[in-house]
Amino acid sequence: xxxxxxxxxxxxxxxxxxxxxxxxxxxxxxxxxxxxxxxxxxxxxxxxxxxxxxxxxxxxxxxxxxxxxxxxxxxxxxxxxxxxxxxxxxxxxxxxxxxxxxxxxxxxxxxxxxx
Amino acid sequence: xxxxxxxxxxxxxxxxxxxxxxxxxxxxxxxxxxxxxxxxxxxxxxxxxxxxxxxxxxxxxxxxxxxxxxxxxxxxxxxxxxxxxxxxxxxxxxxxxxxxxxxxxxxxxxxxx
Lengths: 115, 113
Known about the structure:
A: four-stranded antiparallel sheet; B: mainly beta; five-stranded antiparallel sheet; globular
């Protein structure tokens, strides 16, 4: 099983619908992140969490919200999806206790299409 | 604002060739720089992480260098193989040794048999 698991892997939805992308990890890491990737662009940070009670906005948080339900779970919500939120979404983890603190471990991505 | 640029966007080489991928960043005050590999339909895999105090890191046929003063990093791949075909992304730490990274657009590498 993958260390960082994202569900669903693919989702097609309509404008205005509420969507939740879920991420769970078995690495025991304290830090979790949501990134989005658009064609021809690098990844951009949406939200991040350094602990269960810690939530922080990233570079492009507008239109998104997150919930850190437990150390191992971090979900991303689109309250009212719009077409320009069509993208590939990645969850990632890292550990402040790692020798290579800051090294990220990624899930396999959730491809979201908003019609 | 930190910007990360990777040139070229795509590269095709014959098998066995040594090659260099380039990454440049505008703000030299970085904490670390990472190189990732992305395969189609897959997530990113961390290849090498260079802390700001380091000049290079090596793993197998891969060698990454960092020159903070010039805002550049290179990823050197020795004796390329078809299995090296993938998109390679570099990213710099936004602040501290965290996963808050600024990514380049990536270089898509094709190694032809």
